[in-house]
Design goal:
Order of helices and strands: EEEEEEEEEEEEEHEEEEEEEEEEEE
Strand content: 35-45%
Number of domains: 2
Helix content: under 10%
Largest sheet: 7 strands, antiparallel
Radius of gyration: 27 Å
Number of strands: 25
Shape: elongated
Length: 314
């Protein structure tokens, strides 16, 4: 089978991939002391569409790779205006974006010597202080213009505060099931419990068993004939006792629902592990929320975007 391909998609716009560098998950305005939820679920697909004939993935871990903040200020038209970002220090590895009335301005190391019309600013990554010109050295943002600053807090320093206060959390909230029919995958080498019982990998929700043999070619005795199975625990009870220590099983299955009631905190190096596998062309339905502590934001709040990373085995 093929290599898995895990991707995040919006449930309401299922063709739109999200959670990437180019299209982060947008939580919108997050106000201090208030839980902010996405208006849609996130679908974690493996091999969406099934074109890769991918292997199942398991030991699935989700973590926060990057959190981006956008703050909005209004110019008062005075010279040498300065603004301080809420979440500091700020990583210099990701270039900040600063616009004035939706027009991007340019960062410089010093305003000295800049022309009076130069749309430039200085920005200190350690203190989070943004400074504009005085009309002689660098342009003054026009009165009442909207100044939008998008930046990435340093997850190695500031991020510790995010984790301590459980800013970003996730829970599983269902599945998008597309069953793997019997006979569409190579018979699995299963675990022999005893001569009358075997344990398979893909459970819960075994949907049917064709047979159990002592070889992957399905020749000779079918030990399952007359047997039964418990799909929720992955146990198969044989009609004929085994005469081999290596049984091969052909069966159908579908994704299991983790069905969690509570949210679990995630961060860089702080992961959420999901129990059930994701077969090809199946998806987990996830819900995310952000909780900004009251002491870590202004009254007007901040716009937050998240980039996620998923780790897995197959």
């Amino acid at each position: 089978m093929g290599t898995p391909n895990l991707q995040f998609f919006r449930s309401d716009i299922p063709t739109t991939e999200i959670g990437t560098l180019s299209n982060p998950i947008d939580f919108g305005l997050c106000v201090a002391g208030v839980s902010s939820y996405l208006s849609y679920d996130i679908l974690l697909w493996n091999d969406k569409g099934g074109s890769l004939n991918a292997d199942d993935v398991f030991s699935i871990e989700l973590e926060l790779l990057r959190l981006t903040s956008t703050e909005i200020f209004i110019s008062d038209g005075t010279a040498s205006q300065s603004f301080t970002m809420i979440y500091i220090p700020i990583t210099s590895e990701v270039v900040e974006e600063i616009t004035v009335d939706d027009i991007e301005w340019t960062r410089v190391t010093s305003l000295v010597g800049q022309s009076a019309t130069a749309t430039v600013y200085t920005f200190d990554y350690t203190t989070g202080v943004l400074v504009f010109g005085d009309g002689v050295n660098g342009k003054i943002p026009p009165l009442s213009s909207s100044i939008q600053v998008t930046y990435t807090p340093d997850l190695n320093t500031f991020g510790k505060s995010i984790y301590e206060y459980s800013w970003v959390s996730v829970r599983s909230n269902g599945v998008v099931p597309n069953g793997i029919p019997v006979g569409t995958v190579t018979p699995e080498e299963s675990l022999k419990v005893d001569n009358n019982t075997i344990q398979v990998i893909h459970y819960p929700y075994i949907t049917g068993v064709t047979g159990v043999w002592d070889n992957p070619s399905k020749t000779g005795t079918n030990y399952y004939t007359g047997g039964s199975y418990e799909g929720n625990i992955g146990r198969i009870y044989l009609g004929t006792p085994l005469t081999t220590d290596t049984p091969y099983t052909e069966y159908g299955y579908q994704i299991g629902d983790d069905a969690e009631g509570n949210y679990t905190q995630i961060g860089a190096g702080i992961t959420k592990t999901f129990v059930n596998r994701i077969p090809k062309n199946n998806a987990k339905r996830l819900q995310l929320k952000v909780d900004v502590p009251e002491t870590s934001s202004t009254e007007s709040g901040s716009y937050l975007k998240a980039i996620l990373r998923v780790l897995y085995a197959f």
